[in-house]
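Sanity check

After download, print the first record. It should look like this:
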Amino acid sequence: MTENIFPVFDQLLNRRDKEKVINQRSKVIWFTGLSGSGKTTIARGVEIELNKRSFLTQILDGDNIRSGLSKDLGFSESDRKENIRRIAEVSKILLNGGIICLNGFIAPTKEIREMAYNIIGRVNVFDIFINAPINVCEQRDVKGLYVKARKGIIKNFTGITSPFEAPENPDLEIRTDLLSIEESITKCLEFILPNITLSDKS
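Expected structure tokens:
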């Protein structure tokens, strides 16, 4: 019961203290896009490059989260919302620990994304739209998910039987149907690096 919960957030070391220890500015980089657009591939590539530059990161990926933290959830609208809420709360914890969080989640609607970003704090999130037309995503469908969705085997599949609302004003848009993986990663890094580098004045 809530009356028996006593948060001690005000007694903990703050985020800036931790950022100074690991010499970086923590942010949540949220890669949004359809299944097959390239979210996970780009997030992994970005993490490798950031690691080479001595940045401390953590990837949160849809399949990994659903095999653990959210393994009790399905794909109904309410379950999708709860999944993203949990991810946002975990992201906030990582952010406050000074860590750069790389999130690869469809987060299909504006409402769901706004909920997540409000939990984390909008100024702490960079919304990167990994954009590829659905026909391209289907061509890349190594998991066979689109085929199953088209046959009705998978219900509530985003882009087929469940809506996807593309971000209207993302902080960065990556067209993975026009750019190579390497070009996409480079473009992300050019945007991210200035925003996570801790300056002498910070």
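If your output differs, re-run the checksum step. Summary of this record's structure: The radius of gyration is 18 Å.
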